[in-house]
């Protein structure tokens, strides 16, 4: 019976290099010619089943490790990149894309990295233009903002890092509980783990005392917070190389930008440990993205669930794309996470008509709102207050509001969409300076580029009336 031929060129070449062999060395080991090795590595000759078995026996490797590969995932990621409008006028048949991913994975990876860098530069350029339009001028635009750098780094990758998800999912199999995480820290890293009163930690939640070989956690942390802080400590102890590799692919002009991005990825891995990608995605779809239900299923906080929902954009296994924002009572934005590419993801949040600000009037209650931007695009916003701190009568607490937004077209996939009526929509703006809605009584500043109009005979009630034309 005829043996099936398999083309494994790039994987065969990678394996040979990892073993430190030349083509001549491998040819001698397998009793074939060096030219045949070269042809197989270029996918111009197949690797027969007999030869595959001989490779596995000679180099003591698992056949499945060589034959399985990751070409399907590379294909899916490459197809996602090539859907960018910049490639819209180029005919790119799916079979050709699959051939590139399979036969030239290095080229595919190079193209994907280049596209990511392009996305980061687009975000940075948009930020500079907004700064200049806001009156800061070129001098203000040239000032490096480390927070913006970190946000650009995350946004350019849609806040999704499959490599970190994979390692966290693998680790989660051995670390399902607080006790197992404590045991891991003690046994693998030879560190003492204690829960100490706040005065010992000087107000910190977690203290890695490197010189005394111990990690202390605050006794004021509740069960969910303890799990997350333990997972975060494991990220610091065990995933430094993976995180540094991801940071190395970014473009940073400041060390502080790198520090903030590193902290974000450590938290990303910790969240992925508590909410492994595939189980969490499956549960989110089954529960129709009910965040309260997800907090019970995974024993995490509401805000942690909201964070994690923004990361479910792995090509081929995507969830609903979300944008996340967190604000305080004064309207200050302390966190943005964009897994959706929404137009107001970078600068929006100041409009008082958005329910993220109204959530403070109804603490702990989930508010659902359909919002419409000036360009006519509609989104669904789910907002609720969350509390940080606490744990004792004297401990500081802060109440913030978080909002999770998705495109209005996806509302049917969420349980919250059931609360909306088709005729209910709230017009909002990105910010008053960029909003040109003429009849907004909530306006706090006139829009840029519009001439103010004062009518001595009629009072409209609008704080800053301006010409419609």
TrEMBL record:
Spell out the molecular function terms from Gene Ontology. DNA binding; DNA-binding transcription factor activity
Q: Which InterPro entries match?
A: Cro/C1-type_HTH, HTH_RamB, IrrE_HExxH, Lambda_DNA-bd_dom_sf, ScfR_C, TransReg_Diox_bact_type
User: What are the alphabetically sorted keywords of the record?
Assistant: DNA-binding, Transcription, Transcription regulation
Statement: the UniProt record of this protein carries the keyword Transcription: yes
Q: Which residues form a coiled coil?
A: none
Gene Ontology CC entries for this record? cytosol
Q: Which domain of life is it from?
A: Bacteria
Ranges of residues in domain HTH cro/C1-type: 12-66
Cited SUPFAM superfamilies: lambda repressor-like DNA-binding domains (SSF47413)
Record's Pfam families? Answer: HTH_3, Peptidase_M78, ScfRs
Stored PANTHER family: HTH-TYPE TRANSCRIPTIONAL REGULATOR, HTH-TYPE TRANSCRIPTIONAL REGULATOR SUTR
Give the record's family classification. Belongs to the short-chain fatty acyl-CoA assimilation regulator (ScfR) family.
Instruction: Please state what the protein is called.
Output: XRE family transcriptional regulator
**Organism the protein comes from:** Croceicoccus mobilis
Tell me the classification of the organism that encodes this protein: Bacteria, Pseudomonadati, Pseudomonadota, Alphaproteobacteria, Sphingomonadales
């Amino acid at each position: 019976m005829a043996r099936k031929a398999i083309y494994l060129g790039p994987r065969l070449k990678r394996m040979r290099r990892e073993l430190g062999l030349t083509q001549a060395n491998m040819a001698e080991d397998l009793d074939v010619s060096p030219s045949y090795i070269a042809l197989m590595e270029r996918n111009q000759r197949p690797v027969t089943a007999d030869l595959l078995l001989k490779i596995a026996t000679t180099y003591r490797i698992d056949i499945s490790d060589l034959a399985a590969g990751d070409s399907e995932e590379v294909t899916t990621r490459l197809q996602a990149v090539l859907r960018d409008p910049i490639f819209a006028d180029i005919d790119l048949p799916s079979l050709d894309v699959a051939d590139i991913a399979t036969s030239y994975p290095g080229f595919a990876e190079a193209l994907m990295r280049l596209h990511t860098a392009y996305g980061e530069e687009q975000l940075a350029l948009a930020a500079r233009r907004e700064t200049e339009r806001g009156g800061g001028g070129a001098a203000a635009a040239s000032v490096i903002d480390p927070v913006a750098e970190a946000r650009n780094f995350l946004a350019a990758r849609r806040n999704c890092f499959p490599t970190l998800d994979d390692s966290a999912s693998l680790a989660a199999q051995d670390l399902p509980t607080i006790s197992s995480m404590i045991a891991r820290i003690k046994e693998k890293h030879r560190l003492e783990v204690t829960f100490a009163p706040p005065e010992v930690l000087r107000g910190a939640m977690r203290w890695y005392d490197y010189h005394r070989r111990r990690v202390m956690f605050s006794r004021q942390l509740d069960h969910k917070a303890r799990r997350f802080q333990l997972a975060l400590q494991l990220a610091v102890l065990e995933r430094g190389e993976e995180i540094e590799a991801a940071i190395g692919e970014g473009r940073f002009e400041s060390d502080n930008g790198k520090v903030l991005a590193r902290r974000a990825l450590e938290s990303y891995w910790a969240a992925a440990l508590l909410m492994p990608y595939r189980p969490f995605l499956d549960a989110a779809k089954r529960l129709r993205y009910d965040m309260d239900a997800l907090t019970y299923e995974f024993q995490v906080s509401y805000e942690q669930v909201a964070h994690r929902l923004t990361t479910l954009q792995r090509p081929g296994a995507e969830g609903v794309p979300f944008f996340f924002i967190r604000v305080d009572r004064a309207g200050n934005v302390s966190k943005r996470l964009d897994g959706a590419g929404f137009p107001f993801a970078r600068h929006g949040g100041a409009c008082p008509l958005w329910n993220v600000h109204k959530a403070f009037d109804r603490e702990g209650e989930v508010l659902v709102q359909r919002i419409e931007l000036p360009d006519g695009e509609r989104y669904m916003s789910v907002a609720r207050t969350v509390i940080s701190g606490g744990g004792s009568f004297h401990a500081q607490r802060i109440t913030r509001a978080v909002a999770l937004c998705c495109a209005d077209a996806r509302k049917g996939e969420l349980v919250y969409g059931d609360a909306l009526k088709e005729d209910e929509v709230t017009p909002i703006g990105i910010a008053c300076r960029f909003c040109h809605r003429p009849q907004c009584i909530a306006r706090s500043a006139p829009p840029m580029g519009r001439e103010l109009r004062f009518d001595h005979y009629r009072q409209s009630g609008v704080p800053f009336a301006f010409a419609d034309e």
